[in-house]
């Protein structure tokens, strides 16, 4: 499948997804080398176009582009021409005039990266780094990469020199718990995990599930304790409760949420002994995840951060090299 | 299209054996030797060379001698050619610092792959010396690069194609043995 931009997790079929994970496995080895840099994108320019603050995602993409020797321009909407009223179109055309080779975009509006890729304002490949409550495909890829490593061992790609494709996540059960409604991470993860053969269970209060969730390729439960007993998951992914949404009556108060849907020490013990705990970060300790779970040896939170760079290197390499890129 | 076999299985085996002896002779033994194959077909060739060396020199473990060195990221045509699959790079546990590294490839042609391999190597460490072993040298160099160990020098026309088939990499395509083929060129 010829991938020209990465806008949604549904842009990836199984083969492309596995190829990206295998590529990320090679990218991960660069961190352990004497020279932590590859020359693959030398002389090319990547713009981080962030209309919404996200230091973690931006530095992850920045580190990835720099390890591939690309030049990086960071464009934050705050204090820029955007705050003076410049439209997405004018921003895009400005970047095109400067001659950029790839654009990483984070935007509060769902669909903004799609508009950027389709409108013909610029030819460069677009990578969606999170749009509104829609998608965050590289986060889903890094979660899949992290899971594949703990379930299949490192590296989980094909044996050296054989060129064989690596493994997928067939047979794994992953539970995603919390604010699915506002979570682009959940949306992208459900699709990616499904594409890779895992079965996905969403657990959330009914008020925090989006319309049409029954058409998603996953199962839905409302009670976390029952769901843990029913599915005995290989991994639990806790979603961040965004404190600014507390007053919107999705649930009565934070303490009740924690009691019913938080990953407490007791629920950590109720999980199978070999289950993994994931969180896209930043964590609200004591709200959706207890300190006991966040600091347990089963927690993969820091692995997820570390793997983010390798997965984003793979994505940039895949989109910015080859004759079908510009 | 005209196609002919220029090296058969026995000739390839003899060439590999001879190169193994040459490497040992030049290195005055197997100490501090690392064989790095360039994917795809350099990797099984490096492994065969290491096994041959282990057969000649007692106490040598072929596994500890061999690795693979992917050069995809270091190529000079990443923007022009189609997207290339990246292969694994694996270096023996002892590393390459102060070792004699023998790069192993199937065909030496323009020399661009070896140029890329030298860059890839420099990012991994600092070998004491780097040597080059190839199964076939077909000429038409575009870089000032030469091989130290050559299985067969093969004068070719630029329009011809040289293909190496090895049972480790090409069994799926119906090749049961090893051979080197030339395709095309003048009748």
From TrEMBL, chain A:
Gene3D superfamilies on file: Aspartate/ornithine carbamoyltransferase (3.40.50.1370)
MF (Gene Ontology): amino acid binding; aspartate carbamoyltransferase activity
Residue span(s) of domain Aspartate/ornithine carbamoyltransferase carbamoyl-P binding: 5-148
PROSITE patterns named in the record: CARBAMOYLTRANSFERASE
Family annotation (NCBIfam families): asp_carb_tr, PRK00856.1
Gene coding for it: pyrB
Annotated metabolic or biological route of this protein: Pyrimidine metabolism; UMP biosynthesis via de novo pathway; (S)-dihydroorotate from bicarbonate: step 2/3
Pfam families: OTCace, OTCace_N
Name of the protein: Aspartate carbamoyltransferase
Function: Catalyzes the condensation of carbamoyl phosphate and aspartate to form carbamoyl aspartate and inorganic phosphate, the committed step in the de novo pyrimidine nucleotide biosynthesis pathway.
Catalyzed reactions: carbamoyl phosphate + L-aspartate = N-carbamoyl-L-aspartate + phosphate + H(+)
Main EC class the enzyme belongs to: transferase
Residues that hold carbamoyl phosphate according to the record: 56-57, 106, 136, 139, 281-282
Domain (Aspartate/ornithine carbamoyltransferase Asp/Orn-binding) ranges: 171-318
PANTHER family linked: ASPARTATE CARBAMOYLTRANSFERASE (PTHR45753:SF6), ORNITHINE CARBAMOYLTRANSFERASE, MITOCHONDRIAL (PTHR45753)
HAMAP family: Asp_carb_tr
Residues at which L-aspartate binds: 84, 184, 240
InterPro entries: Asp/Orn_carbamoyltranf_P-bd (IPR006132), Asp/Orn_carbamoylTrfase (IPR006130), Asp/Orn_carbamoylTrfase_sf (IPR036901), Asp_carbamoyltransf (IPR002082), Asp_carbamoyltransf_Asp/Orn-bd (IPR006131)
GO cellular component entries: cytosol
From TrEMBL, chain B:
Residue ranges annotated as motif PRPP-binding: 101-113
Segments crossing the lipid bilayer: none
Stored HAMAP family: PyrR
GO biological process: regulation of DNA-templated transcription
PANTHER family: BIFUNCTIONAL PROTEIN PYRR
Assigned EC number: 2.4.2.9
Organism placement in taxonomy: Bacteria, Bacillati, Actinomycetota, Actinomycetes, Micrococcales
Superkingdom of source: Bacteria
Record's function text: Regulates the transcription of the pyrimidine nucleotide (pyr) operon in response to exogenous pyrimidines.
Entry's family note: Belongs to the purine/pyrimidine phosphoribosyltransferase family. PyrR subfamily.
GO MF, any single term: uracil phosphoribosyltransferase activity
Every Phosphoribosyltransferase domain range: 5-149
Catalytic class of the enzyme: transferase
Organism name: Sediminivirga luteola
Protein name: Bifunctional protein PyrR
Gene3D superfamilies cross-referenced by the UniProt entry: 3.40.50.2020
UniProt keyword list: Glycosyltransferase, Transcription, Transcription regulation, Transferase
């Amino acid at each position: 499948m010829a991938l020209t931009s990465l806008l949604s997790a549904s842009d990836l079929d199984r083969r492309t997804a596995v190829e990206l994970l295998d590529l990320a496995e090679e990218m991960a080895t660069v961190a352990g080398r004497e020279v932590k840099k590859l020359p693959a994108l030398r002389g090319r320019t990547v713009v981080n176009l962030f209309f919404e603050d996200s230091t973690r995602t931006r530095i992850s993409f920045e580190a990835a582009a720099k390890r591939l020797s690309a030049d990086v321009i960071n464009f934050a909407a705050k204090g820029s021409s955007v705050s003076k009223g410049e439209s997405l179109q004018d921003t895009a055309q400005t970047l095109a005039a400067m001659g950029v080779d790839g654009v990483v975009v984070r935007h509060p509006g769902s669909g903004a990266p799609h508009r950027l890729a389709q409108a013909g304002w610029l030819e460069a490949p677009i990578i969606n780094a999170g749009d509104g409550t829609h998608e965050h495909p590289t986060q889903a890829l890094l979660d899949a990469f992290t899971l594949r490593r703990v379930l299949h061992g490192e590296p989980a790609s094909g044996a050296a020199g054989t060129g064989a494709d690596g493994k997928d996540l067939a047979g794994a059960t992953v539970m995603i718990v919390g604010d699915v409604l506002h979570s682009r991470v959940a949306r992208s993860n459900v699709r990616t995990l499904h594409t890779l053969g895992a079965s996905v269970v969403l657990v959330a209060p009914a008020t925090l599930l989006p319309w049409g969730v029954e058409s998603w390729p996953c199962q839905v439960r409302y009670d976390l304790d029952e769901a843990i007993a029913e599915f005995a998951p290989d991994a639990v992914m806790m979603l961040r409760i965004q404190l600014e949404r507390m007053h919107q009556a999705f649930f009565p108060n934070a303490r009740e949420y924690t009691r019913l849907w938080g990953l407490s020490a007791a629920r950590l013990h109720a999980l199978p002994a070999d289950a993994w705990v994931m969180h896209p970060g930043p964590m609200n300790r004591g709200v959706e995840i207890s300190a006991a779970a966040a600091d347990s040896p089963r927690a993969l939170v820091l692995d997820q951060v570390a793997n983010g760079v390798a997965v984003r290197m793979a994505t940039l390499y895949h989109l910015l090299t080859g004759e079908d890129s510009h | 299209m005209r196609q002919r076999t220029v090296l058969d299985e026995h000739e390839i085996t003899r060439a590999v054996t001879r190169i193994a002896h040459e490497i040992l002779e030049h290195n005055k033994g197997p100490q501090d030797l690392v064989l790095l194959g360039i994917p795809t077909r350099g990797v099984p060739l490096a492994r065969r060379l290491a096994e041959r060396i282990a057969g000649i020199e007692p106490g040598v473990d072929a596994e500890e001698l061999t690795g693979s060195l992917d050069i995809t990221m270091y190529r000079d045509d990443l923007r022009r050619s189609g997207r290339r699959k990246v292969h694994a790079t694996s270096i023996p546990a002892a590393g390459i610092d102060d070792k004699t590294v023998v790069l192993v490839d199937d065909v030496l042609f323009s020399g661009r792959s070896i140029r890329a391999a030298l860059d890839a190597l420099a990012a991994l460490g600092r070998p004491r010396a780097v040597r080059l072993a190839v199964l076939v040298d077909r000429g038409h160099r575009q870089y000032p690069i030469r091989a130290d160990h050559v299985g067969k020098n093969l004068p070719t026309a630029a329009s011809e194609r040289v293909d190496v088939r090895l049972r480790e990499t090409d069994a799926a395509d119906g090749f049961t043995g090893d051979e080197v083929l030339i395709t095309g060129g003048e009748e």
